[in-house]
Known about the structure:
The complex is a heterodimer of chains A (236) and B (498). Chain A is an alpha/beta fold and 236 residues long. Chain A is built from 7 helices and 12 strands.
Amino acid sequence: MSPQTARAEVLARIRSALRRDDAPAGSASAEPSGPAGTSAAASAAAAQVGPAPADPGPHPDGDALIELLTDRLLDYDASVSLLTAAEVPARIAELLTGARTIVAPHDLDPAHLAGLTAEVLPDSADAPLDLATLDSVDAVVTASTAAVADTGTIVLSGPQCGRRAITLVPDHHICLVRTADIVNRVPAAVEIIEERGLVEHPQTWVSGPSATSDIELERVAGVHGPRTLDVILVTG
Amino acid sequence: MSVTHLGMPTVPGKGNIVEPSPFPQVAELELGKIQMRTNLARATSTIRGKRLARVAEVPNWEELRDHGSAVKTAVMDRLPELLEQFEHNVTARGGHVHWARDADEANAIVARLVEEHAPVLDTGRREVIKVKSMATQEIGLNEHLEEIGIDAYETDLAELIVQLGHDRPSHILVPAIHRNRREIREIFLREMPDVDPDLTDDPTALAEASRKHLRRKFLSTPVAVSGANFGIAETGTLSVVESEGNGRMCVTLPETLITVMGIEKILPRFADLGTFMQLLPRSSTGERMNPYTSFWTGVTPGDGPQNVHVVLLDNGRTRALADEHGRQALHCIRCSACMNVCPVYERTGGHAYGSVYPGPIGAILSPLLTGTDAGANDTLPYASSLCGACYDACPVKIDIPQMLVRLRNEDTETKARKTGRLPRTQLDAALTAASWVMSDGRRMAVAEKSLPLAHLLTGPEGIRSLPGVAGKWTHSRTLPQPPEQSFRSWWKKERGTR
Ligand code: SF4
């Protein structure tokens, strides 16, 4: 049977299962309905459900929020440093002692990399590095979109975070988090992603270096993603 | 096929969702596997403890559960429109949407796409990489692909252990929990062509071996297959929630990405993730957040796969949807919390359920997808002591005990109708289950721990307690009552007299 038949039939089965008397069997539209026909569905569902529960508090801010995030990241075996923007280049250089080649998003503020002796390969969607190159570099340095203190989660999305492959293939990730981008709980990070228009951009939410507990439930850090995650919290 | 009031048939699902032999028989066999039981008991109790600690940290956990449940109810109410909206948005962003009525159709779609986009290698075969997905296990995708010359490589460490061991997963979250490190080492030495012969059984060394083994595949395989934890209608966004980074590899590096997603996985809005990304990780692995979650929306030029497909799978889901009480089973976000708290599952293990969906959710979902008349799926609703722990643990508040009771009722009445005998009373059903439980000391221990059948003994027959051994079951906690309307009268009302 034709693919179109499968679509129409599945939709008709759903309508029938829901006892939609207004849409008897077989009447599901044959073509994808345009935005006018379907764009209201998600909002209608949201209206039916009502607002999500508000953050119940406590509402740490300032240093308390930074402390909470730091605590969570350390718990995941990431390293954390809290620095002013001026201190960042020296710290990155220190973390990259001995590194020969690193990769960074083309749109990352070059000031962060000022202290480096390693060669910096810029990467962007327009001029992407190939996988073999990414597999051979010593590290990657990126910015971040937001961080959730409660869960120790860093959201990577948008040009300063780079293409997804660059924070995945290298074995060492140095990630900058502006303290102004730290939020308390998950829904606030989702709001930031929406406010900055990044919803439809690829996103990676990172909570510590990759890990597995598949063998006798023993936690082993580092399977396929970067095995070392260094987080630099940047104030101001 | 059964018939709804609109005259449209509901169509059962097929694939790896059928219990081949009656649950008590398989369970008997599995109960004899000492290592499986020891490992599983340790795993479930560890994860249970972690989950409780992480859930207790969230002051509004109950509100989040209520909200998650309400969102899922709204999704079911508006499923056709939300799916069309999802399809529209995926398509608008350069992705392709396919619809599959059943397992065979989904397998055929994936096979055709792989044949179009993966080259034939020197071995004469094609290869794809996969990230662990319940939907593709349900439809038996790997087996289907293998038959037609396509090797599907599982990349999740546990799934890799299962696949290399020519084995079946025993838990949806930690599928290789029945294997010890020594066995895993032996499997790797036997099955990985490029492995270091001095490999030790240290988990770190074993994980390192799998990293090396899979790295070349990640960097060179042009087609990947994934499942999806959520599909967002409002944007067309898909997501994979994982730990190891193999999911990121699969959804990022290949040129073609094929995602198989059950039609019930839709969420209306991106903002709903604010709730679900709190509920899922804490319920699942007992972590505040899983290490990696990927989100992608159609095609992004220069970043990730440029050829993006999603297969929307029915395979019995509309059958479950047509049961207005069973419908709730489709709210499941596959966290596995209900398994980890289940006293029956803890002892029998996942293999006893036959289906890829084990534990309490499997005991309702499998028969709802297929009908109780498929294989021995009619025995699954009895694989429970109705203690209610699954309901308390479920992040989207699926009332599993209530549905188990309904399915038992449906089962006894379906059989009565078929044989022309009077329907068995609930007492009969209770005694059938009870005789199995009581015939074995180990099962008795399970039963006593969680007070199994008392509520079934308080049916309209007016029997309030049994003498002897069953008597002690009547000290109690609140248990679901049998449905007010019997399945038989519901059947009559819905389908007319026949
Ligand atoms: S039924 Fe609930 S607890 Fe069980 S796996 Fe599904 S969501 Fe989790």
